[in-house]
Amino acid sequence: MAERTDRAGRTERAGRTERVVRTAATDASARETDAERRRRRAQFLRELAEARALRDRVQPRRAKAARLRHAMRMRTFRW
């Protein structure tokens, strides 16, 4: 039978057992991945907010124009 090595270095054999191993690994990693995904997303959003704040400090004229455009959009928006 053909053997294959995954990222973790585990060897899997082609056939029925491969599907069972993959399903069990997928279930275990899905639970871990959900929490990890939320942590990565929160980290990304923090870094994005920090980058925007830095851009606003570095380019105050552009930031002011963006604030004014946003205020105008909000004034003309209808619920």
Quick structural overview:
The chain is mostly helical and 79 residues long. Helices cover 76% and strands 8% of the residues.
Structure description:
With 79 residues, the chain is mainly α. Helices cover 76% and strands 8% of the residues. It contains 2 helices and 2 strands. Strands 1-2 form a two-stranded antiparallel ribbon. A hairpin with a 5-residue loop joins strand 1 (3-5) and strand 2 (11-13). The protein starts with a strand and ends with a helix. The relative contact order is 0.06.
Write the layout of secondary structure elements.
Blueprint (H helix, E strand, L loop, with lengths): L2 E3 L5 E3 L2 H43 L1 H17 L3
Antiparallel strand pairs: 1-2
Helix pairs in contact: 1-2
In angstroms, what separates the terminal alpha carbons?
64 Å
Structural class: mainly alpha
Q: Output the strand order for the largest sheet.
A: 1-2
Radius of gyration: 24 Å
Q: Could you list the spans in which at least 5 consecutive residues all have pLDDT below 50?
A: none
Shape: elongated
Topology, number of strands: 2
Q: Helicity level, as a percent range? A: over 70%
Mean pLDDT: 79
Please give the count of helices.
2
Question: How large a portion of the residues is in β-strands, by DSSP E?
Answer: 5-15%
Taken in chain order, the helices and strands follow as EEHH
Largest sheet: 2 strands, antiparallel
